[in-house]
Amino acid sequence: MGKSQIATATWSFVIEPQTSKGDLLAYWERGWQCVFAALEPLRPEDFERKVSIRGQEHSIIQAIDRQMTHYAYHIGQIVFLAKHFRSAEWQSLSIPRNRSAEFNRYLNEGDRQTDKEHRLDVGTKFAREPKKESVK
Question: What is the largest CA-CA distance in the chain?
Answer without folding.
Answer: 65
